[in-house]
Write a structure and sequence with these properties.
Layout lengths: L2 H6 L3 E5 L2 E5 L3 E2 L4 E4 H4 L13 E7 L2 E2 L3 H6 L2 E8 L3 E2 L2 E2 L6 E2 L11 E7 L2 E6 L9 E6 L4 E4 L4 E6 L7 E7 L4 E2 L1 H5 L5 E6 L2 E6 L8 E4 L14 H7 L5 H4 L5 H5 L4
Parallel strand pairs: 13-20
Antiparallel strand pairs: 1-2, 3-6, 4-5, 5-7, 7-16, 8-9, 10-17, 11-14, 11-16, 12-13, 12-15, 18-19
Length: about 260
């Protein structure tokens, strides 16, 4: 049994050479999807930069076998992502900026609930991909902390430490999909994270109106009934707890008042 099983409720082993995952006897999961540097260049500040050939690995729909039918019924899935060490030119290792595609079963662009497992993360999010991007936030989080991205917001997950791989999990809509094209038209999101020594600094993307970037820490999201326990363990205790991820319209008033 791995240390991550003890901490986060799933017997999953993280592999970094090559990137990927190993699963315990009671856990099922797919072969990871690998995002290479060539695949994500169009989303970077400098598309011609150097960096690791394999940037990150994604395993969508990891679960204990006995929970799979319940997850399918609820249109939920649990995904795990791990990053390489290093950097992408002047940028830290990060995901591509994207917006979640509208799900046909809910009619909403789904939210996403992150849980950091290893490393240091910054979840960057902005209200919309438009010249006036609305609120822009950089949420700093470490192991065990959660970050909730609300419906329709553009976002990217950034490794804040080039010497330590980042690993995180997330509750997602089972009918997940990523929209990249609009972000690429704007040459990325409204703020670029850059490495300056061991620190992250931010550079405004001139394709957007100049707006303030707010750096904040995570919170507990009590209004959604969440606790400090691992996300997967909370599902085991109460499978209905994360229904707001697949059916965000059922808590529409909470999204109208939502503060990340």
């Amino acid at each position: 049994m791995s240390d991550l099983m003890l901490q986060f409720g799933l017997d999953v082993r993280i592999k970094h050479d090559p990137l990927g995952f190993g699963y315990g006897d009671d856990v099922i999961g797919p072969l990871p999807e690998i995002r290479t540097l060539e695949q994500i260049r169009r989303s970077l500040r400098n598309p011609d930069c150097d960096g690791p050939e394999q940037v990150y690995a994604i395993a969508m729909d990891v679960a204990k076998q006995q929970h799979l039918a319940e997850l399918k019924k609820r249109m939920l899935l649990f995904g795990i992502v791990t990053y390489a060490k290093g950097q992408l030119g002047q940028e830290p290792i990060r995901s591509q900026g994207h917006v979640h595609r509208i799900s046909t079963h809910s009619g909403w662009s789904p939210p996403e609930l992150y849980e950091i497992w290893q490393g240091k993360a910054i979840v960057y999010m902005q209200e919309r991909v438009a010249y006036e991007p609305g609120r822009c936030l950089a949420v700093h989080a470490g192991p065990g902390e959660k970050v909730l991205v609300p419906p329709g917001w553009a976002h990217a997950t950034i490794s804040a430490d080039p010497y330590q791989p980042l690993t995180f999990a997330a509750w997602c809509d089972r009918e997940y999909g990523f929209e990249y094209d609009t972000v690429r038209q704007y040459k990325g999101l409204a703020w670029y994270p850059l490495l300056q020594g061991n620190n992250i600094v931010w550079q405004h993307n001139p394709h957007y109106q100049s707006v303030r970037l707010h750096a904040i820490g995570p919170r507990q999201y009590h209004e959604f009934g969440l606790s400090n326990k691992p996300l997967y363990s909370q599902f085991e205790t109460d499978p209905a707890r994360f229904q707001f991820i697949a059916k965000p319209g059922s808590v529409a008033e909470k999204w109208r008042r939502f503060e990340p």
